[in-house]
Structure formats: structure tokens, C-alpha cells
Specification:
By secondary structure, this protein is of the alpha/beta class. It has one domain (2-207): Alpha-Beta Barrel (TIM Barrel), CATH 3.20.20.70. The protein is built from 10 helices and 8 strands. Strands 3-2-1-8 form a 4-stranded parallel β-sheet. Strands 4-5 form a two-stranded parallel ribbon. The chain has a two-stranded parallel sheet with strand order 6-7. Strand 1, helix 2 (25-35) and strand 2 form a beta-alpha-beta unit. The longest helix is centred in the last third of the chain and has 17 residues, at 193-209. It is globular. It starts with a helix and ends with a helix. 49% of the residues are buried. The structure holds 3-phosphoglyceric acid. Residues 17, 44, 68-69, 131, 157-160, 178-181 line the site of 3-phosphoglyceric acid. It comes from Demequina lignilytica. GO terms for molecular function: 2-dehydro-3-deoxy-phosphogluconate aldolase activity. It catalyses: 2-dehydro-3-deoxy-6-phospho-D-gluconate = D-glyceraldehyde 3-phosphate + pyruvate. Homotrimer. Belongs to the KHG/KDPG aldolase family.
């Protein structure tokens, strides 16, 4: 199950990172993600609306829904109970990774240094979030780390945009990239479906162009 979730994320190559203030906005967001051809969402636990938003998106049945900014085992439980199939964290927490394994979902913990990657490997993790990518050396840092960690793949997030997407996706060790530029918080809150659909379609078209 975690393996197939990772394969699906890697097939889409993009993970929209969502901050949602009111769970009812998830309905319009889900419509825009489906219409834009990118049925993937990482709903961050930065707002109290996250579990209910995950539930609404998961209930549609056509979106690969995960939770982001997951810092505690209790948040793993809340996310999985709501229908999340993957949990993403900014750093690497043994407690979070272990709870995700117990719940049978994919964990994507954050790691940006060689030491952090080794810590993730010791927990059985071979795909890490590389966050914040833009200020942590970007594609060059990932390429350097990949030379040593040949079996590790990365999901860079933080400072990724339509303009630099190609620099990340060109790296064979990059499984997918995440970002909020496709789903701006204000547009999600305002239910701007047409605007969101345009941003999401642009991103997914660009990722498709860059497919090796
Ligand atoms: C994340 O949690 O992955 C980031 O906040 C997304 O970063 P971005 O807003 O720079 O895309």
C-alpha cells in the first residue's frame, strides 16, 4: 500500500500543498484538482480544518489525499482516520514514521543533510521530503546527496515554482515535487475554481512536458 501510493505520487510528479482555512472549501478545491488533471492533495495540519478537509477530498474517491506538516503520532491517526494515504513531515520523527507504518500509510519525512538522510534510512525510509528546497541548496544539493545515497529519492518542496520545476524534475532521484503555488491559500479560501483550475492545469501540463 505505501509502495503503490509512492508510485502514484511519482506518476503525477506534482504534489499540491494545501493550507485550508475552512473545510467546506475542500469541495471546490477537489473540483479544481480533478478538472485540472492533477488529482493529488497534501492537506497540511497547519489549520484545524485539515482533518475534515481530508475527509471531504477522500470521500470523493478520485483524489490521492495525504496530510502535510504532520508533527505527532496523534496527527497521523487523525489524518489516516480521515482518509489520508500518506503523511508528510517537515523533518524526520521516529514516532511519526513508526505510527505511519503501524497504520499502513506512506511516510515522507523531511531530510536535507546527509546525517538526516542516514537517520531516515535507519527508520526504513528511502523517499524523503527535501524541505525547504529553495534555501537548502536546491537541485544542486539534491544531485550532490544523490551521488552518495544512490537508493534514496526526494520530494523537494518549498520555493518550487512553475519556473524552476524543470530543474528539479530533471533529476532522476526526484520522485515528485511539492508546492503551494498551484493552490494559493487565498484562492482556495475564496473558492476560485476557475483560477485554481488554470494554475493546476498549467503545472500538470508543464510536468507532462518534462516527462523523460
Ligand atoms: C510545504 O510545506 O511543503 C511548503 O510550505 C510548501 O512550500 P511553498 O509554499 O514554497 O510551495
Amino acid at each position: 500500500m505505501p509502495e503503490s501510493t509512492l508510485a502514484s505520487l511519482a506518476a503525477h510528479r506534482l504534489v499540491p500543498v494545501v493550507v485550508i482555512d475552512d473545510a467546506s472549501a475542500a469541495d471546490a478545491l477537489g473540483g479544481a484538482l480533478a478538472a485540472g488533471g492533477l488529482p493529488v492533495a497534501e492537506v497540511t495540519f497547519r489549520t484545524a480544518a485539515a482533518p475534515e478537509a481530508i475527509r471531504r477530498l477522500a470521500d470523493r474517491g478520485d483524489i490521492l489525499v495525504g496530510a502535510g506538516t504532520v508533527l505527532t503520532p496523534a496527527q497521523v491517526d487523525a489524518a489516516v482516520d480521515a482518509g489520508a494515504t500518506y503523511v508528510v513531515s517537515p523533518g524526520t520523527s521516529r514516532a511519526v514514521v513508526e505510527r505511519a507504518a503501524e497504520r499502513g500509510v506512506l511516510a515522507l519525512p523531511g531530510a536535507i543533510t546527509a546525517t538526516e538522510i542516514q537517520a531516515a534510512l535507519e527508520l526504513g525510509v528511502t523517499t524523503v521530503k527535501f524541505f525547504p528546497a529553495g534555501t537548502s541548496g536546491g537541485p544542486k544539493a539534491i544531485a550532490g546527496l544523490s551521488a552518495a545515497f544512490v537508493d534514496v529519492s526526494f520530494v523537494p518542496t518549498g520555493g518550487v515554482s512553475l519556473d524552476n520545476l524543470g530543474d528539479y524534475l530533471a533529476l532522476p532521484s526526484v520522485a515528485a515535487v511539492g508546492g503551494s503555488w498551484m493552490v494559493p491559500r487565498a484562492a482556495v479560501a475564496a473558492g476560485e475554481v476557475a483560477h485554481l483550475t488554470t494554475l493546476i492545469s498549467q503545472a500538470s501540463a508543464r510536468a507532462a512536458e518534462l516527462r523523460p
